[in-house]
Amino acid sequence: MMQESVQGLSAAATLEVWEQGAGRHPLDQALLLLRYACPDQPFEAMCEWTIGQRDAHLLALRRQTIGDRIETYAECPGCRNGLEFQLSCDALLSSAATSGKTWTTVEQDGRAWELRGPNSRDLALAISAADPEQARRVILSRCVRGGAEDAAEVWRGADETALAGRLSELDPLAEVLIDLQCEQCGQQWQASFDIVTFFWNELHARSRRLLQEVDLLARTYGWTEGEVLRLSEQRRGLYVEMAQS
Ligand SMILES: [Zn+2]
């Protein structure tokens, strides 16, 4: 993996990404972010990263842009009590798949299958399916091969739930589940954490704050948007304080 080469988003890049991705599907927002995170990677190749590989790069981008610590919350399914909890980008990255192989052979139902983790193209096809059942079949038909026989025929009749489970094992970061326990009623449950939605919401809030700062500093000092955005975070913050005092 090449998360080390990921550069954080500058203030100007944050606004560009936010403007281009607003209102688009999270699959598109994720790919847009990757173009900024990894400008040297061909776009076609990024579309074929597994969802876990994609999210590993997004976690690295989030760490470089905002920091390692993620503060989030979930609602207890038992008593609706809100529970705040913290995650670390680094800790999540340590559970990323280490294998760079595309196809992996696994044993299931007494036979060998070739599996690969679903990527952005697979998901783009699956979201246009009529229902979740059909979506799962779209994924399986693209990501499971039954060895030498005709793949499309082979996986039918197999234990599809088990095969889908084997797919997620291959790419642990594709679905992040956090074990939680409610402080009020003691219920234990698993909450899913989606870096795309979470990071996008953060960038939305950050963009709004940046524009407010541009507005304030432009009116106070007569600077252009470009000039304000080129200031370091620290300097911009100090000027904002002075302009407000
Ligand atoms: Zn509870």
Explain what this protein looks like in three dimensions:
Helices cover 52% and strands 16% of the residues. With 245 residues, the chain is an alpha+beta fold. The protein has a 3-stranded antiparallel sheet. The protein has a two-stranded antiparallel sheet with strand order 1-2. Bound molecules: zinc ion (ZN).
Bound ligand species: zinc ion
Number of H- or I-type helical stretches = 12
Largest sheet, described in full? Answer: 3 strands, antiparallel
How large, in whole angstroms, is the Cα Rg? 22 Å
Average pLDDT, rounded to a whole number, is: 90
Structural class: alpha+beta
The tally of beta strands, per DSSP, is 7
Distance from first to last alpha carbon: 47 Å
Outline: globular
What sequence of helices (H) and strands (E) makes up the elements?
Answer: HHHHEEHEEHHEHHEEHHH
Uncertain stretches: none
State the assembly state of the protein chains: single chain
